[in-house]
Amino acid sequence: MASNYSPLTTHVLNTATGKPANDMQIMLHRMKPDSSWEILREGKTNEDGRLPGLLAKEEFSAGMYKMFFDTSSYFKEMNISTFYPYVE
Q1: What is the pLDDT of residues 7-28, one digit of tens each?
Q2: Residue 58 phi, psi (nearest 5)
Q3: Which residue intervals define the domain Transthyretin/hydroxyisourate hydrolase in the entry (predicted)?
Q4: pTM, 2 dp
Q5: Whose CA is closest to 74, among 8, 26, 28?
């Protein structure tokens, strides 16, 4: 298996173009015991709309996770207005 294997993955597609959404900022969070969120990783999607290597298998544990997709910046870069500034 590739060294960037992660048990948690994402694949972002731009449904307007039918193509992968490359260069979109994503933040991965995990809920802490006090119900606040901690950022575990952040990065930008690659040309295939993926962010490989989010978490190593050893880092992944049972719990509540969320991903923050910065759609506002993604569409602004293409001079397109968007209704949703982010998606979680």
Answers
A1: 899 999 999 899 999 999 999 9
A2: -70, -25
A3: 3-88
A4: 0.87
A5: 26
